[in-house]
Amino acid sequence: MNSDLSHAYAVIMAGGGGTRLWPLSRREKPKQLLPLIGQETLFQSTVKRLEGLFPPERILVVTVEEQAHEMKEQAPELPDENYLIEPAPRGTASVVGLAAMALRKRDPLATMAILPSDHFIRNVDLFHYLLKAAFDVADNDYLVTLGITPTMPSTAYGYIQQGAGVDGGYKYPVYTVKTFKEKPSEETARQLLRSGDHSWNSGMFIWRADAILAEIRKQMPGLMDALDQIGADWGTSKQLETLVKIWKDVKIETVDYGIMEKAEKVAVLPAGGLGWSDVGSWSSLFEVLLPDMSGNIATNAVSHLALETNNTLVYGGSDRLVVTIGVDDMVVVDTGDALLICKSDQSQKVKDVVEHLKKHRQEKYL
Amino acid sequence: MNSDLSHAYAVIMAGGGGTRLWPLSRREKPKQLLPLIGQETLFQSTVKRLEGLFPPERILVVTVEEQAHEMKEQAPELPDENYLIEPAPRGTASVVGLAAMALRKRDPLATMAILPSDHFIRNVDLFHYLLKAAFDVADNDYLVTLGITPTMPSTAYGYIQQGAGVDGGYKYPVYTVKTFKEKPSEETARQLLRSGDHSWNSGMFIWRADAILAEIRKQMPGLMDALDQIGADWGTSKQLETLVKIWKDVKIETVDYGIMEKAEKVAVLPAGGLGWSDVGSWSSLFEVLLPDMSGNIATNAVSHLALETNNTLVYGGSDRLVVTIGVDDMVVVDTGDALLICKSDQSQKVKDVVEHLKKHRQEKYL
Fold it and tell me: Which residues of B touch A (CB under 8 A)?
């Protein structure tokens, strides 16, 4: 592998909201801005994870106005002009297009890695190795995605079915993509796991800016028209005005279904051992944090006294003493104004709580 | 029944500490001073329960200095001089003796009901009826105790085995007492329940002041000597000085084992349907509070959002929102500086927590 990364950029997608980590995550404090694992926020860890691969000036962040200020405080090493502010959320396809357009303006040879801002990866060395391998494949005009080798029949992720191997002399196995599949039922998930040729869709993509824009032109001509209009004024005094004007009519679409599904030259690098998690629910923290001998996890330096307690996570946002007696397989999240006690295998229902709070206009808890 | 209650006094025993309702009950805020059930504290309910049976001037409270001030605030209707301050806790036998001595000084014909300050009784009419019946029996020099007809094989209470019926023309069934039994094992408790002739020891006693003092003289001559010395200065300027001096050498003993076990003329009135509880653990609140259709109880007007939650008690001391998902048979106690989450059937282990906190000198939580 002889990667030349001098035209490689990282684009961190960081504008999301999300409700699955309530009561810690709130409207004003979305998941990526929280120190869920250790002292750093997920956003900070995402930036730090790129050290040694990209210099700060080649790391971009796409986010929304409400979050930009906090992000600049959390990652002061990134140049101000590398924050792309989306006037309003329009789905990942449009974000990808906007970033590709902006990067091509800056560097006609730009290649880019699209990276979520709120995921966890334990094995950073392997992550770097895989990204380099992916850039090699992207250099040959592939739209590349990192697949995560499943470790359980998860119904929380989309799946990618791999096809034939791509013979390009790459050091890491590369496959064409047969299909992208939506989150499956539990039975289907078990079949996919057994099949051996399915990966989880990690939301990490690597491609040449040129290549993805060509694909957008082919499959989403409306979005490309918008990007052309925005691009015409990009870097001029009318940049913001035009962006805001055009952006409001852009159709909301995801990169998976808007672009990847029908693209022809798509490749997947299936990655095992990355220690990846999308930190998509409280129970996912059991995968990324180290439990004690009883399977318990006390995060955030909470004072937890555990009697006859097993496989229980206590996330303490306040400095109270938390005592559990006879508690198994539970998640306890103790914040200033709300307390969540949730059976681990039902932590996906946290979003129902948020729906309930919205419906009953309990704004202060949102 | 033609009870003459003009010489009848109630003596509320209110000096106890106790750790089984931590983290709500603390050193400075023992159980009887807490509003565990509804708006009133258990002490206030105990006083109120006597309305219509005893005028305030015939209700005495025996307590310790640290609690007296708060009690006077909670029950301002009781005359100041009706608070007997124990210089230090010396067990129920000594308290009973002190109260009997003081009452006999006040009224040589005094009869007295000894009543714990921290129990719950749902059926107040029946309670009045039983007390009147008990005073009738006590008038004939019996040491009377109210037994509680068991509703389950509890290991948390002592038991009283009844003997032959007492034929005195009483309207309510009265039995001699065969034995007092300590808290049994679970297997023994089941046998006692099946036997049909065992009651729970409620700690409620009714007798003539004269009669109990005679029994103390017979069985605890040391205590009686002390009471005689205290009595000699009672009502004089040396009352407090003498009490403090003598009290410190009084042997700690309970009324059950120090007096009742070996007394000859002991009677029990077994009471069913009283809706009695000693509120001796968090799980006991399930017996005295009314759960919703899922068996959940949200006390203290706590804001509780319950999803897939059953038979769970949430006691909110703060004004936070408490959300439970997939939680069964649990007790949640949410106070300012400590949070307890405890499987209902293990709530007796709360005292182990308090032991642990003492051992590790975490004074602020005690």
Answer: 23, 305, 307-308, 320-327, 330, 332, 334, 336-343, 345-347, 349-350, 352-353, 356, 362, 365
Taking a C-beta distance cutoff of 8 angstroms, is the pair B85, B38 a contact?
A: no
For B340-365, how does the pLDDT look when each residue is reduced to its tens digit (9 = 90+)?
999 999 999 999 999 999 999 888 99
Nearest chain B residue (CA) to A322:
B339
Rg (CA), chain A: 21
Query: Residue A1 domain-assigned?
Result: no
The answer to whether residues A69 and A143 belong to one domain is yes
Q: Which domain holds residue A111?
A: 8-276
Stated pTM of the model = 0.87
Q: Which residue of B has its CA nearest to A319?
A: B337
CATH number at residue B86: 3.90.550.10
Q: Is the Cα torsion angle A173, A178, A183, A189 positive or negative in sign?
A: negative
Rounded Cα distance between B206 and B190, Å, is 28
Within 8 A by CB and 6+ apart from B76, the residues are none
Say if the Cβ atoms of B347 and A325 lie within 8 Å. Answer: yes
CA–CA separation, B140 and A283 (whole Å):
68
Domain contains A2:
no
Residue B2 lies in a domain: no
pLDDT digits (tens, 9 = 90+) for A33-89: 998 888 899 999 999 999 999 999 999 999 999 999 999 999 999 999 999 999 988
Q: Do B343 and A325 touch (CB under 8 A)?
A: yes
Confidence at A1, pLDDT banded by 50, 70, 90: very low
Q: Between chains, do A323 and B336 touch, taking CB under 8 Å as contact? A: no
Number of domains in chain B: 2
Name the stretches of chain B with pLDDT < 70: 1-3, 301, 317-318
Instruction: Show which of B277, B303, B326 is a domain's final residue.
Output: B277
Pick from A151-160, A206-215, A347-356 the range whose average pLDDT is largest: A206-215
* Same domain flag for A13 and A96: yes
